[in-house]
Amino acid sequence: MHATAAVDDLLDERSLSKLRWRCRRGLLENDLFIERFFARHAHQLTVRQADALGQLMELSDNDLLDLLLGRKPPEGAIDRDDVTQVLALLRAARSTPSPEESA
């Protein structure tokens, strides 16, 4: 996805915009998790985290929702530390309001 960037570099604006577009989902529940995630973490996302999020976006909406709600653990190709880290950030976005929401 990001061949020239080091995996721990911050994501540039163009890549962030593409990632946001790629993360659009068909289920409102998934979109809510993802919108809150971007509200909190968009400007500190690394290339590695963006790639992990991209892996999660390869899943069907129902499989993604099962992961977000903790109904099942990551398995197979997504059972990796970087994916687990992003999944934890997505789940945390569910439980705490963003600064914009609490104002």
TrEMBL record:
GO cellular component, one term: cytoplasm
InterPro entries: SDH, SDH_sf, SdhE_FAD_assembly_factor
A biological-process GO annotation: succinate metabolic process
Assigned keywords, A-Z: Chaperone, Cytoplasm
One Pfam family in the UniProt entry: Sdh5
Subcellular location: Cytoplasm
Taxonomy, superkingdom: Bacteria
Coarse class of the protein's main subcellular location: cytoplasm
UniProt family annotation: Belongs to the SdhE FAD assembly factor family.
Protein name (record): FAD assembly factor SdhE
